[in-house]
Amino acid sequence: MKDRLLQKLDVIRKQSDPHAFILADAKDADMAWGIPAAGSPAAANGKRWNTMPEFRQSIREIVEDGVIDILLASVSQLGLLDREGLFDRSDVTPAIRANDTTDIWCGRGARYREEASRPFATCDLGRAMAGTSAKLGLYSITFNNDLDADHESLEAFKRFRLKAEEHGFRYFLEVFAPNLAGRVTEGDLPHFVNDQICRCLAGVPVDNWPVFLKIPFLSPDAIEDLAAYDPENMIVGILGGSSGTTHDAFKLIGEAQRHGARVALFGRKIKDAEHPVEFVRHLRKITDGDLSPEEAVRSYHDALGSSGLAPKRAIEDDLKLTATELSYAR
Q: CA Rg, the chain, in Å?
């Protein structure tokens, strides 16, 4: 991990700066979506989907701007960018997606999410570390309140932790809400997710705990409960989910920070923005306390105008709140 990230983690654990916040851009969509992962193209170029070279260019622009702290990507794409020395000249920390559970197999026509999540990793940790500069990665787990499925997922998590420790690899833990409907009542869902996280780490030496968590924002109380559980050792982060309006994204990060989250990993919200670099700059202005979410939406629209870019929505529509984020696919 780069010094900037290490310093922020230390400040967050010591709770010495209320504005200390880690921003990550999740550019690992090719592990889930296939060809559509690179995103819809601009109307002017006449293509159906962006290409991976265009996707890598978007990564370069975000990393070179330097506002984010972590860039998460697949092993294949990070390896290609490493050949260029992208991270050698940046203090942004590279990270890889270390596993791809079946509930993120979201390609066109796929129905895998209709069954309980199963553990799987395309990535071989040793080969990934040899082929990229990453010493940090995301590990994902989904609890479905299903004994067999959750037991299998926890066994896989245990094997990963032991291998990560053997290789000197650090990880952050992504925990989704159940991908099967009706497994947990709506009222119990935030507590179920929180309790499964704390329970599954209780028997693990703290040195092998995740660097931070990545979870859905299920309720303000749930974020506060988890953030207060063991703040020196457990840092709470949120996932972004689907694109939504600009206000959806800005409000989410503002509310998450207000209730104790200190990390945000946004993927599609950044990728699908009209100006991803400017979008990230405004996320930082919110976490730094310089703008409220509503002010940031207006400022972002002003920045689009200054850049000669047309917004996808009128300002009145972009100020609406529309999204509830529970999982990768929603």
A: 19
Output the six-digit token pair for 180: 């099967």
CA distance 205 to 196: 17
- 325 part of a folded domain: no
Q: How many CB atoms lie within 10 A of CB 249?
A: 30
**Residue-number span of the structural domain to which 82 is assigned:** 3-318
Q: Helix, strand, coil % (nearest 5) of the chain?
A: 45, 10, 40
E strand or H helix at 17:
none
- Residue 22 DSSP SS3: strand
Q: pLDDT for 43-59, tens place per residue?
A: 445 668 889 999 999 99
The C-alpha atoms of residue 2 and residue 6 are separated, in whole angstroms, by 6
Q: Assess if residue 39 is contained within a domain.
A: yes
pLDDT of residue 48: 80
Q: Is 245 helix (H, G, I), strand (E, B) or coil?
A: coil
Burial class (CB in 10 A: 0-12, 13-18, 19+), 262: buried
Measured between alpha carbons, how far is 244 from 322 in angstroms, rounded to an integer? 7
Q: What would the DSSP string read from start to end of 191-233?
A: HHHHHHHHHHHHTS-GGGS-SSEEB----HHHHHHHHHH-TTT
139 vs 211: CA distance, rounded Å: 11
Q: Which amino acid is at 94?
A: P
pLDDT in tens, 153-171: 999 999 999 999 999 999 9
Q: Is 239 helix (H, G, I), strand (E, B) or coil?
A: strand
**Containing H/E element for 53?**
helix 52-65
CATH number at residue 204: 3.20.20.70
d(CA 269, CA 218): 18
